[in-house]
Amino acid sequence: MTKRTVYLDHAATTPVDPRVVEAMLPYLAERYGNASSIYRLGQEARKAIDEARADVAQILNCTPREMIFTSCGSESDNLAIRGIAFLNRDKGNHIITSPIEHHAVSHTCEQLEKHFGFQVTYLPVDKYGHVDPADVEKAITEKTILITIMYANNEVGTIEPIAEIGEIARAHKIPFHTDAVQAGGALDLDVEALNVDLLSLSAHKFYGPKGVGVLYLRRGVRLLPTQTGGAHELNRRAGTENVAGIVGLATALKLAQEHREDNNRKLIALRDRLIEGVLSSIPDTQLTGHPEERLPNSASFTINYVEGEGMLLGLDMMGIAASSGSACTSASLEPSHVLLAMGIPPEVAHGSLRLTLGHENSEEDVDYLLEVLPGIAERLRSMSPLYTTVS
Amino acid sequence: MYSEKVMDHFMNPRNVGVIEDPDGVGKEGNPICGDLMEIFIKVKDDRIADIKFRTFGCGAAIATSSMATEMVKGKTIEEAMEITNKAVAEALDGLPPIKMHCSNLAADAIHAALEDYLEKKKAKQPA
């Protein structure tokens, strides 16, 4: 077997599309103007940002004014949650969210609860990680000022019923935010169809550069800015604009949108081949997340009796990049809160493996993984006290 | 992230397995925490004649188990008792700070096996 280099961690980040790099380069070279400057060099940069803003707004089906460029998905999430929370303090202090959010959402909510007197309800999820809209409605009180539920989960790929939840939020006149960082480029981002008031995106998840994100903020919904300073982004987010990054984000999102259906078709075929292959070749392995309502590129598993980091090292030695929700792979030494919230026992959560495909992956890549993974699992199982107890 | 020595012990672990009728068994860790180590020893003339391990855990856990068993094989009980997690980590050319607790587990499991042996030995002695 010849060793190959196969990148299967697109949920972590994606390679920057060469066409995106090309679009960005002038803004890292001769077009270095500060977009706030009135002379030509500055106005050139301003124009580039305006065009990027209009392009992204069109894809989201909103107006350019409703786009706030940020430095990343985490900043967008922070701005959305803190921004709404602090401005609406006099109306209430209750936030509704899910237990499977990205840390940018959950740690922000935790901090608001611990240090700022807010009260957070974490809704239950079923074994697939689905939030039930009925539970959202049940949790609403007259003090609820924000609902935040992610569009698609980064660890298990499950897609949440955002439009339905949005309808409920609207009926109760509560601002509704969705962290769409994993959905960007893959799923429909029409904010009208989704019934959302705020939506976070991050460029490096859809073949754009790291260091730039965007927050959609519905007209009429106000927030308290988190990053204060100059009047950038209509006084909502201070800081000299990352022109190159913003151009990159818009270019990447346009490319993703243009080819979305085609790309998804290819990805789903590869994903299903991967899932079927793994489940049929390695006993005592489960697919995590919803079998159908999942991201087109996401294949996430728990492989019993072995630990995740061990698998990742074995895969890395064979040239394959992947990730895991095991405690040993997290800086906190805690297993994935997402898997635990779905009812997966900790010892099983430690054996999680996440494979997320991208545009450059091929059938050969999938088949290579399928050739290599069973041996890795078997070797680790042969050393594991949990496996030999069973057999 | 890991040194060459750690990767070597991870890819080619020494002393993997069980001993059918061990003279001492040590168990440390907990699958709920993501780490479980079992050490089996066979003692002859006060020396560790044979030693085997099984581990459920990350690369560092497997490497430290492997290295720890290599370090005490053939030593006397007294010598083996002196093994420390620091010594195991050093023998592996160091571990990332966040992984140091894995070396604790290996040293602890060896101590547990030795103590188990000594207890069993005590129990066998006529009163």
Q: How would you sum up this structure, described in words?
A:
The complex is a heterodimer of chains A (391) and B (127). By secondary structure, chain A is of the alpha/beta class. Chain A folds into 2 domains: 141 residues, Aspartate Aminotransferase, domain 1, CATH 3.90.1150; 228 residues, Type I PLP-dependent aspartate aminotransferase-like (Major domain) (Aspartate Aminotransferase, domain 2). Chain A is built from 15 helices and 12 strands. In chain A, the strands form 3 sheets. Chain A has a 7-stranded mixed sheet with strand order 2-8-7-6-5-3-4, with helices on both faces. In chain A, helix 6 links the parallel strand 5 and strand 6. The radius of gyration of chain A is 22 Å and the shape is globular. The model of chain A has no long low-confidence stretch (mean pLDDT 96). Chain B has 127 residues and is α+β, with helices and mostly antiparallel strands. Chain B has a single domain, classed as Sufe protein. Chain: A (Alpha-Beta Complex). In chain B, 46% of the residues lie in helices and 21% in strands. Chain B is built from 5 helices and 3 strands. In chain B, strands 1-2-3 form a 3-stranded antiparallel sheet. In chain B, strand 1 and strand 2 form a beta hairpin. The longest helix of chain B is centred in the C-terminal third of the chain and has 25 residues. Chain B is globular. The mean pLDDT of chain B is 93. The chains are: A alpha/beta (391), B alpha+beta (127).
